[in-house]
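re the bet — no i am not wrong, look at it urself. input seq straight from the record:
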Amino acid sequence: MKRGTGRTAAVVAGFGAAAGLVMGMAPAASADQGDGYVICNRGEICFKEWAHDSGGPGRRHFYWNDSNHHDDSWHKGGAFWDDATYILNRDTQCSVRVHEHVGYGGYQQTFLPKPGNEDYPVNYEHFLPGLYEKNSAHQRIC
């Protein structure tokens, strides 16, 4: 082996490994966060917990269905599933059905779209006892 060839081979192997890591990495999934603002805006499905453990009202917004709230968190952090107590459905077209269990199972409650309602406490609807802090999925019903 010629002098310096070993070092060149190691550098090439290092670049190859780094390229393999970069090309093999899947893009990070972008979770549905609504428009990303804390305020509940027109078109969003907004969940709220008035006494969230992180020191204030927890909020979590969506535009689409979510069959598993167990992989979501509040806007301030902390587990979202089975913790929400209120919802404001500002979807412009569809009702929203909230389910007790992951995969759209168990007890359910449907909320009509109210896109004109502003983000005021009086406009949020409370979950019935079967869903109070037991909401693990939601789906748009159009």
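see?? Strands lie at 45-49, 58-62, 86-89, 95-101, 105-111, 125-126, 137-141. told u. also Residues 7-30 have pLDDT under 50 and may be disordered. so pay up
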